Amino acid sequence: MKLTKKDIESDIKFIINELKIQDMEVPSFMLCAHPGALAFVGVVAWQTFMLWPFSKKVFENSLLMGFSIFVGFILFMMITQLRSRYFSMPPSVRSKSKVFSLLKTKAVAYTTAWFFINISFGLLVKTFHLDVAFCYGLQIASIVIIWFIAIVDLGRYDLALLSSAIKQWREGGDVDASLHKP
Q1: By CB count within 10 A, which of 57, 125, 151, 167 is most buried?
Q2: In this predicted model, what pLDDT tens digit does every residue of 31-46 receive, in sequence order?
Q3: Rounded to whole angstroms, how far apart are CA atoms 168 and 9?
Q4: Distances (CA, A) of 74 to 28, 41, 85, 129, 143
Q5: What is the pTM of this model?
Q6: Alpha carbon 28 to chain centroid, angstroms
C-alpha cells in the first residue's frame, strides 16, 4: 500500500473529526489479550516440542524452558499492548483509516515472518539434531532483526504524520481532539 503525504493529511483530518464525534473506547482485557495468550502458549508448546525427548540435562532444559516462557511473555505483552491501542479507537477509524490499515497489514506481516523464521529454523534444528540452544539464539536474533526492520520501516511515516499534525495545529485545528469534547 502506497501512501502519499496528502493521503496522510486527509487521514489525520478524518481521524480528528471521528474523535470529535465518537468516544474512544476502553476495550476489554480478553479482547486485547487472547491473541497474545495464544502466542505465549504457542511459543512454550513449540519449545517443549523442540526439547522432546527430554535429555538428562534437567538444569539445561529448565533454563531453556524458562527462556521460552520469557520470550512468550514478551510476545504476550507486545501483542496485548498493540491490540489495546488499536481497539481503543472508534470502529470507523479502524475500518476506514489508511494509516491504521497500513499499520495493521505491516504488523501481521512482521509477526508472520517471525513465526515462519522460527518454525523453519526449529525444524532444521530438529531434523539435523543440532543443539536446541541454537534455536533460542535464533529466536532472539530474529526478534531483534525484525523489530529493527519494523522500526525503520514504520519510522518513515512518523515525519509525515508529525508534519501533518503540526499543519493541522497551525491552521487552528484541534490536534488533540481525544482529550476535548465539542
Answers
A1: 125
A2: 999 999 999 999 888 8
A3: 8
A4: 20, 12, 17, 28, 10
A5: 0.74
A6: 18
